[in-house]
Amino acid sequence: MIQRSRTRLPAVIALAIVVIAGVIASSSTFAQDPQTASGTIRVGIVSPQSGANSRYGAFAWKGARLAADEINAQGGILGRKIELVNGDSQCAPAEGVSAAQRLIRFDHVSMIIGDVCSSVTLAMQPVVEAANVLLMNAASSNPEITYRAGIGGFKWTFRNYPTDELRAAIALQYAVEKKHYTKFAVLSVDSDYGRGAIAFTKKYLPRYPAQILSEDYYKETETDFRPVLTKIKYSGAQAIIMYGQADTTPIIARQMLEMGLAGKVGLVGNGEFTTAATIAAAPRVMEGAVEVAAWLPEWQSPRSRKFVVDYQKAYGGEMPSVQAYSPWESLHLLARAAQEAGSVDNARIRRALLQIKYESVMGTVTFDDHQQAILPMVLVEDTDGRPSIKGAMVSKVDYPKP
Asked: What is the pTM of this model?
């Protein structure tokens, strides 16, 4: 889920290669481990349990633990109980690779769920590939992970989470088809995340009778947006496409209000538009702002409501985040694949995943030829001072040609 965590693929692969030899050597040991014949099924959870992003890792561990408890209470997987094993990535590729190696070589995990940080997931891909261990990417969103999976090369990597590319495509589709915007300005954070989201938006723009009139990026420390907002005001733009910082969006909203843009220029993208603090900063500006999310606690399917209630019961009333939901759902998905395979053999589970039709909280999950789950995303719009779910939407991704 940590969309701003990006690392160039050659760098993380080079890092992973340093330890792959050890993983290959251990793969035969894994194949003979007693858990494949009896006892528990060990599943590794790689996430940042320490460091600046540890709160995301805490959610991931709690969500997976709840799923394991639920599955075990129903008899486990083919009569075997799930045993979770924790691996701390610290949201750093080197630590993530080390964690994955330890889980495979010493803990003999049969599957790994992780990471919330894209750079870590990218680094782990060649490691699990060498060991023939399933990696279910449950909460990181860099599209490169999927480009390189399935027919892209890494056959042991699956993703049960939407990508940044899918988010941008769906946000644009909703803005044009439902909000009837055709003229856009760009005001996005000057980072890999912000620029990447706009690059994906421009990739899918030719699908629609729409255009981008201006394109601007802001530094994370910036506080005065009046010059660029003045340009947008007189450009004729109907909406601003913004992928930005949670702390910055309220500042932009207040300055839009000062400049008389409330009710005249909308907001589309992802910048914490729907939080109470952002809406309170300038309710008239935020009215109608549209954000796209993988999942929200407010999603009203019966199974989603039950997950929220069960999670709160298990963890002292804490509200689950998407970083808790996705590992929870992903472990249930892996358990279902094993049941359908009728085996705990990794190769058979992998084949079952390729054919699976799994009923998730968000709808039926199937995987495409890049082993990316085809998932709808939630559309949330600020209405009368509160976020309102407008439904879910799915879009087709155009993969790069080999």
From this structure: 0.86
